[in-house]
Design brief:
Layout lengths: L1 E2 L1 H10 L2 H6 L5 E3 L2 E4 L11 E4 L4 E4 L5 E3 H8 L4 H11 L6 E2 L5 H26 L1 H12 L4 H6 L3 E3 L5 H8 L4 H6 L3 E3 L5 E3 L4 E7 L5 E8 L9 E3 L15 H11 L2 E4 L2 H9 L5 E3 L7 H8 L4 E6 L3 H14 L5 E6 L6 H18 L4 H11 L6 H15 L5 H15 L3 H17 L1 H10 L7 H5 L3 H12 L2 H10 L8 H16 L8 H7 L3 H11 L3 E3 L6 E3 L7 H30 L3 H23 L6
Bound molecules: zinc ion.
Length: 622
């Protein structure tokens, strides 16, 4: 299904770009624009600029730019359709669809989503309506999961037969291959299929915007020759380490509270959620990854990690600490009493006690210190040194020097040694750790998959940029002149020419007196570089002094384009003709064919006379 163009226009009209972006990063008004530190590259002074009137953003630091839709696509890693649907939901717009697909490739993608949804409905029905499923339902309810929670998270059940889902697919004539790609059925050597999930409680896994993308399956108690948990394999719509269970349902609450509680399992998540802890999220299915932390840290920097009170929980905590230190998040470790997990704890002690224990969370230094003293590892000097050493190795993973130093001082205080000796040793580890490739890789991931080469934007001349800007800002009556004289080959920069072509074909569809809408055009530009070039051309650039105080507009882009239109056309034409003439001259110098040389010379003559036409013409436009 495709979203109708009218609906897309409505979304762009109503979805205020400032309101949307403000939800993610703090914006500060400055003149007619808003400024922020760019979320797509590391910077100390803000060059990320948002224009409400134009509906566009552009970062003058790294070059990324676009409209409200491209922001969501980039920030939340959404597809175009997902971004439009998210905005429509937020601004109460009812979208209209039409048949057809966007591209061939998207057809498969849409099917993967569609079949995932159908499968989750199938599993859910099994749980509620089959005899076998009722058994599983009872098990869930015995463990305290209520029916409303089961419905809200669409929990399901996979029948124990080898062909439960398979028969359902065949009965409905769905495409088996698509289910195979989702990993829901597996092909045998003889070409037959069988179900991956059998006799398991099913937890559908949702994407950030609420589409079913995979499943987790848990055996019922007492079925011990099978792994307890099993997950869908990765597919085009599901990347394991980049998905957090429940995040779709809880991200608004996490944002509101500016804090998240991170647990490990599906059941932990559901029990906490059901008992009033709504800012929870689970790493379910994998051990926590840096990607998952980055996804979370876009919503909050305050993360509470909960671990079971047993040996395995402590090990997991120590491993997670090392990971967390590589991010800039503010994290605390919450240790549950022995033999408790979040699930059992909240059922036994209730919400208030749970919140209390969250409050008691420790930073990693206190956590390791207490753990060591519990294990009696602080009794002699050698053991003490070992603990300090471990802490310093962990601390060396922090990227920010100042942050490292603060923790180093805390370690010194805790163990009653001098700050100097601690910092010296720390710096040794920092050097070592810096050599580890891992650090570089992670750092690159951190600054996002941003790929624009700034030179691409700089290579578009100011003249070319201002012509693109004119086309987007001038009234309809003036545009005819531009398109009459200029075509895309007149642009020295081919990317600018590509944008021009899109603008022109859009212009040809416009009604008399309709203006070109730059915000809308951005959607039509498929390449990221093109969006960057256009948003760069359309948004005014500001210079900001250190410390956010002074803001000055540097470029003088507030000129009336009517006055310079003729002159700009003339300049571009002459530059373009000169280049074409040069090219032909070059070809003449190389050819040995007399006839060809003669033809080329004729061509040059034509171009020369055209050039003198533009040189003489004054282009008074009114
Ligand atoms: Zn940037």
């Amino acid at each position: 299904m495709r979203i109708k163009e009218d609906s897309i226009r409505e979304v762009l009209e109503k979805a205020d770009i400032v309101t949307v972006i403000e939800n993610y990063i703090p914006l500060r008004q400055s003149g007619r624009n808003y400024l922020a530190l760019c979320p797509f590259h590391k910077e100390k002074t803000p060059s990320f600029t948002v224009s409400r009137e134009k509906g566009l953003f552009h970062c003058f630091g790294c070059g990324v730019g676009g409209n409200v839709v491209s922001f969501l696509m980039k920030y939340d890693k959404l597809t175009f359709v997902d971004a439009i649907e998210t905005l429509a939901k937020k601004f109460g717009i009812k979208l209209q669809y039409e048949s057809g697909y966007y591209q061939d490739e998207d057809k498969e993608l849409e099917l993967l989503y569609e079949y995932s949804l159908i499968t989750s409905q199938y599993f859910h029905k099994n749980l509620l309506e089959t005899n076998e499923g009722r058994n599983a339902l009872k098990y869930l309810q015995d463990r305290g999961i209520e029916l409303t929670t089961i419905k809200a998270f669409q929990l399901g059940y996979a029948l124990s037969a080898w062909d439960g889902l398979l028969n359902f697919i065949k009965r409905n004539n769905y495409d088996l291959e698509v289910f195979e790609k989702l990993g829901l059925i597996i092909k045998k050597d003889n070409g037959e299929y069988y179900d991956r999930f059998r006799g398991r409680i099913i937890f559908p896994i949702y994407s950030v915007i609420g589409r079913v993308i995979a499943f987790g399956g848990r055996i019922l108690e007492g079925d011990h020759d099978q792994p307890k948990y099993m997950n869908s394999p990765e597919s085009r719509i599901y990347v394991k380490g980049k998905t957090l269970y429940g995040f779709f349902q809880t991200k608004d609450e996490i944002r509101k509270k500016d804090a998240a509680i991170l647990v490990e399992g599906y059941m932990d998540f559901l029990t906490l959620f059901q008992n009033g802890i709504k800012n929870v999220v689970a790493s379910a299915g994998t051990s926590l990854t840096l990607d998952q932390i980055f996804i979370l840290s876009k919503v909050t920097q305050n993360i509470n990690l909960i671990f079971d009170g047993d040996e395995a929980g402590q090990k997991a905590a120590v491993r997670t600490i090392q990971l967390m230190l590589q991010t800039d998040s503010n994290f605390k470790i919450v240790n549950l009493p022995e033999n408790e997990d979040p699930d059992s704890f909240i059922l036994k002690f209730g919400e208030d006690k749970f919140l209390e224990i969250i409050e008691s969370g420790q930073n990693y230094i206190d956590y390791i210190y207490n753990l060591a003293s519990q294990k009696n590892s602080l009794s002699d000097t050698n053991s003490k040194l070992k603990v300090i050493d471990t802490l310093l190795q962990f601390t060396s993973r922090i990227r920010d020097e100042l942050r490292r130093e603060i923790y180093a001082r805390e370690i010194a205080k805790k163990f009653n040694v001098t700050e100097n000796s601690v910092i010296q040793k720390l710096n040794k580890y920092v050097k070592n750790f810096a050599n580890i490739e891992e650090r570089q890789i992670q750092y690159q991931e951190d600054i996002d998959t941003h790929t624009i080469d700034k030179n691409i934007i700089n290579n578009v001349s100011p003249l070319e940029k201002s012509i693109l800007k004119m086309i987007c800002e001038l009234d309809h009556q003036y545009l005819g002149t531009i398109f009459e004289h200029i075509d895309e080959n007149d642009f020295i920069n081919p990317l600018a020419g590509e944008i021009f072509k899109v603008l022109k074909s859009h212009y040809l569809e416009l009604k008399e007196d309709e203006k070109i809408d730059g915000q809308y055009i951005i959607n039509k530009l498929e390449k990221e570089e093109l969006r960057s070039i256009l948003s760069d051309a359309l948004i005014e650039k500001y210079k900001i002094s250190d410390g956010w105080n002074e803001v000055q507009e540097v470029s003088n882009q507030n000129i009336d384009f009517k006055d310079v239109l003729g002159d700009s056309i003339k300049k571009l034409k002459i530059i373009s003709l000169n280049k074409k003439i040069d090219d032909l001259n070059e070809r003449i110098s190389k050819t040995t064919d007399l006839d060809e040389a003669k033809n080329l010379f004729e061509d040059i003559k034509k171009l020369m006379s055209l050039k003198s036409f533009y040189q003489k013409n004054e282009f008074v436009i009114d």
